[in-house]
Design a protein that fits this description.
Order of helices and strands: EHEHEHEHEHEHEHEHEHEHEEEHHHEEHH
Strand order of the largest sheet: 3-2-1-4-5-6-14-15
Strand content: 15-25%
Helix content: 25-40%
Number of domains: 2
Distance between the termini: 23 Å
Number of helices: 15
Oligomer: single chain
CATH class of the largest domain: Alpha Beta
Length: about 375
């Protein structure tokens, strides 16, 4: 199979779909790899490094889209990229379709077979292709929040860990999954006063055991959430409903109860965000203020640490890429139900139920597609 990767064009996105090492693995399996020139510059991977791995360098993304049977990316295809997709082609990348009707419509129109990293499952019903970026984003959320809290950046002027004689910042983490756990780890490490909210008693028990009193856990009822948000200096939104739009847990009315200059970091923004006042921002202009509250809603946070993120991502995406290239997409999905869960769109049909429900498409079951 001819497999290609292109330079990401989303604002300040420096990751790349295939590292030179991943290209080498595909070539070793007998496949041809095309790479747009400069695609790896953001992670320090030169064209020469790809050539040494056996890849072919192409001058433009258009050549890759036009001739490759499978395109491996990181972020969802932008409008100019979606216009180049076609029936019979495989797109393997993050998609986050539920909050993005325009992208979904374009993918449906193109006829492409689109496999989304974020809905591929693991044997334990985990999301293994989402996990490494959730780890990165969770840890980065505390860095970003700490910076936004600085007075020069519009925040309250509070140091997360405080100093002797001055209380630390109060950090509230909504959601105890991978993002929330990693955010809490970083915040605890910096000496902040941390509370984690979740609705799963098993998650709360696991977190309570792990942190051994260094972070508090609290069941996320409406009253508890409202109370914690009102007292917080920094709120991390770490809620995920796989494949679906994130629930709006922090309402605009709640902002009026918060301390002026407090910060909201919405890590769920790829799925539409879990704060009512959230809208996606970029690394070039990461924050905005609503009712005196600073919002950080960058939709590709891990792109800022592109080398770490790319290698962590390739560690989990490459095995499935090899299966798809070796077997073809249909046989690969038939052989692996966890990979099959990643199919979101195929030849004009929406195959992921949560996306179809949220955006008003007829849902075509995977069994029909693979029959």
């Amino acid at each position: 199979m001819r497999v290609g990767t292109v330079k990401e064009i989303k604002n300040h996105e420096y990751r790349v779909g295939l590292t030179p090492e991943s290209a080498r693995e595909l070539v070793a399996h007998g496949h041809e790899v095309w790479v747009e020139t400069g695609a790896g510059n953001g992670i320090g991977a030169s064209d020469a490094g790809y050539v040494a791995a056996g890849a072919v360098i192409k001058a433009t993304a258009a050549e890759v889209f036009a001739e490759c049977e499978m395109v491996v990316k990181v972020k969802e295809p932008q409008a100019v990229e979606r216009a180049q997709l076609r029936k019979g082609q495989i797109l393997y990348t993050y998609l986050h379709l539920a909050p993005d009707p325009e992208q979904t419509a374009d993918l449906v129109k193109s006829g492409v077979t689109a496999i989304a990293y974020e809905t591929v499952t693991g044997a334990d019903n985990s999301l293994p292709l989402l996990k490494p970026m959730s780890q990165v984003a969770g840890r980065m959320s505390i860095q970003a929040g700490a910076t936004a809290l600085e007075k020069a950046n519009g925040g309250r002027g509070v140091l997360l860990g405080g100093v002797p004689g001055v209380l630390p910042a109060k950090v509230v983490v909504i959601g105890g999954g991978v993002v929330g756990f990693n955010a809490a780890q970083m915040a605890v490490g910096l000496g902040a006063d941390v509370t984690i909210l979740d609705r799963d008693p098993g998650v709360l028990e696991r977190l309570d055991s792990h942190f051994e009193g260094r972070a508090r856990t609290l069941y996320s009822g409406r009253a508890a959430l409202a109370s914690e948000v009102s007292e917080a200096d920094l709120v991390i939104g770490a809620v995920l409903v796989p494949g679906a739009s994130a629930p709006k847990l922090v309402t605009r009315d709640m902002l009026g109860t918060m301390k002026p200059g407090a910060v909201l970091v919405d890590v769920a923004i790829d799925q539409g965000g879990c704060f009512e006042t959230s809208h996606a921002t970029t690394h070039a202009d990461p924050t905005y203020v609503v009712d005196g509250i600073v919002h950080y809603c960058v939709a590709n946070m891990p792109g800022a640490v592109a080398r770490t993120s790319t290698y962590a991502l390739n560690n989990v995406t490459l095995p499935h890429a090899l299966r798809i290239a070796d077997l073809g997409w249909k046989e690969a999905l038939r052989a692996n139900p966890h990979l099959a869960a990643g199919l979101n769109v195929h030849e004009g049909k929406v195959t992921y139920e949560a996306v179809a429900r949220d955006l008003g498409y007829d849902h075509v079951p995977l069994s029909e597609i693979l029959a």
